[in-house]
Amino acid sequence: MNPSDASGAFDPKQFLNVGEFESVAYARMTKMASDYFRSGAWGENTLRWNVQAWEQIRVYHRAMVDVSKRSTATTLLGSPSAFPFIIAPAALHKLACKEGEIATARAASSRGVPLILSSLSSTGVEEVCRAAKDVDVWMQLYIGKERSHVLDLAARAHAAGCKALVLTVDAPVWGVRERDIRNGFCLPPDIEVVNLMRSSRDGAGHGAEGGLTGHSGAGIAEALGWTIDASLSWKDLDWLVSKVSLPIMVKGICRVDDACRAVDAGAKGVLVSNHGGRQLDGAPATAESLEAVADAVGDRACVIVDGGIRRGVDVLRALALGAHGASAARPILWGLGAGGEAGVARVLELLQTEFDLAMALAGCATLEEITADLLLG
Ligand SMILES: Cc1cc2nc3c(=O)[nH]c(=O)nc-3n(C[C@H](O)[C@H](O)[C@H](O)COP(=O)(O)O)c2cc1C
């Protein structure tokens, strides 16, 4: 496939599915950037399982249902979305294209889809919130050794207009991504982890100079070690819940007991996730852990799933397994790398169009009709 027009310009309509963006995007990046995006941890088994597990779920479509009028619109934790999808947090969008998170936010706005901004983003939360028109932004957080820093960033996010906080809990230490180590992963001088620059509160935060820029060693685990903390425990969630007023999603759950513990502590939602296979290689595919978690959480909280979502029909599968919505990171990075804002908009359009058609073909006119029996036959 040649996804460019005759002049070589990016032509979004040439891309017929999300997967077609991958090779085009990676070809346009440095090896260090493409390896950073594509990497899973260790043997990259969970990375692979994530995609395969969705593909293997059979959908027993209902026949003879009037699906002439369909609606895909929904809300996730009160945030409206054109379909049950939210953009997953991914660090450093500027490694994919120079407009970085601003291009992502504009594309999300044009498609009516909310986004979760990474605390390791290369654009500040205030700027991203300004670029996101009529769509909500949620802020992802890590809790690092300096506990107060997370409150600073949560307060900044709140002031900037973010509607929820997403606490990532699957990274007490960084997973080992061997490609990054081999490449000596570091950032070009013009890209910075801006949300974590010197703290405005006490001047003691870590700037990029303490982080990734010019780092020449063992990849992200060493460079960003200070942003996380191996002593993280449930009491830190209790503490965060007591300190912030925005709703909190807990991201990185694969077990029923953890999901219940998070909701009992006051989390308004859980994100079933294995960090896109970048943390514990060997963790189950999210399509495998979702159903039990969704059953246990029930209506008490919002359940979202990410990891390996590549087709609109995967979103339908996620809803049939009990999720309220699905999310993805790499497809967005591929859109960004291949075509900036227009690329991300096309990725979102493809996912939404496929989801709408999958609903029709499965005999569902409304989201409520996407139920577990579709997977049983
Ligand atoms: C390049 C990259 C950077 C990521 N950065 C973050 C991050 O900063 N915070 C976080 O919670 N998750 C991060 N993730 C994990 C994603 O939010 C998400 O859980 C996962 O990638 C979903 O799988 P998918 O890429 O197959 O869609 C990152 C993933 C990738 C691929």
Layout: helices, strands, pairs:
Layout (H helix, E strand, L loop, with lengths): L19 H8 L3 H8 L6 H11 L18 E3 L2 E3 L3 E3 L12 H12 L3 E3 L7 H7 L5 E5 L5 H14 L3 E5 L9 H6 L36 H4 L10 H10 L4 E6 L2 H9 L4 E4 L13 H12 L4 E5 L5 H9 L4 E4 L1 H33 L15
Parallel strand pairs: 3-10, 4-5, 5-6, 6-7, 7-8, 8-9, 9-10
Antiparallel strand pairs: 1-2
Structure explained in plain terms:
The protein is α/β, with parallel strands linked by helices and 377 residues long. It has one domain (17-375): TIM Barrel (Alpha-Beta Barrel), CATH 3.20.20. The protein is built from 13 helices and 10 strands. It has helices at 20-27, 31-38, 45-55, 100-111, 125-131, 147-160, 178-183, 220-223, 234-243, 256-264, 286-297, 312-320, 330-362, and strands at residues 74-76, 79-81, 85-87, 115-117, 137-141, 164-168, 248-253, 269-272, 302-306, 325-328. The strands form 2 sheets. It has an 8-stranded parallel sheet with strand order 3-10-9-8-7-6-5-4. The chain has a two-stranded antiparallel ribbon with strand order 1-2. Helix 12 links the parallel strand 9 (302-306) and strand 10 (325-328). Helix 5 runs parallel beside helix 6 and helix 12 crosses helix 13 (330-362). It is globular and about 60 Å long. Residues 198-211 and 214-218 have low confidence and may be disordered. The site of flavin mononucleotide has 23 residues, from helix 2.
